[in-house]
Here is the input.
Amino acid sequence: MLICLLIYIGSVQPGFSDNAGMMREADDDHGLPQFPGRDPQDMLEATLASRPDGDLWVFGYGSLIWNPEVVHDEVRPARVWGWRRTLRMWSRINRGTEEAPGLVFALMSGGSCSGIALRVPQSRAERELRQLWKREMPRAVYDPRWIACRTPQGVVQALAFTLRPSSPSYTGELDDAQLLDILRTCRGRYGTTFDYVARTAQALRDIGIRDVELERIMELAAQHRLDAKNA
Here is the structure.
């Protein structure tokens, strides 16, 4: 895992934001109305007010792993307890449409989740957080939280974008037949749900993480001969 991590960190230089030449990916639906009673700006100010002192840490569990779009100086493998990565969030713009919504990952209560912690230098923390907010919180879908991330160098308090079960974006339980249908057919402005899932699985493997449920989904897709060409 250490070798994989060194290779990965070597591709992210200090002060480098990898949004150049890459699509603006976000685990959210842009262009749709905001959820009532949840103002993104108010939530941003509350998050800034409660931010721990020092550098900003952000926990990545989905596309933030392979397309972070924030200037950061360090990447660490990280694990959070009490939260799990799950493919249970509707995407009606980026990976699907209103008529045929796709899926993206959410961080929901229960279990544990391995991902990455991105360190943003304190001098850029507020600026980068405001930019990140435009990506992740245009509709205030998520509940942003400061959560404890365990890294090889110790515990850091990182910002994580979580989803509550009462959210209209929560899919509820999906059986494998429903999941396969979505993987096979759903496409949004940034591509298919299958491509999003496959890229996340590969990004995790590249840093030595094999998510059991995600690998099960990829195996299920392979059994039904789904790949980037026919999804």
Notes: The two ends are 31 Å apart (CA to CA). The helical segments are 2-10, 40-49, 63-66, 125-136, 176-185, 193-206, 212-223. Strands lie at 56-60, 74-91, 102-120, 143-151, 154-162, 187-188, 191-192.
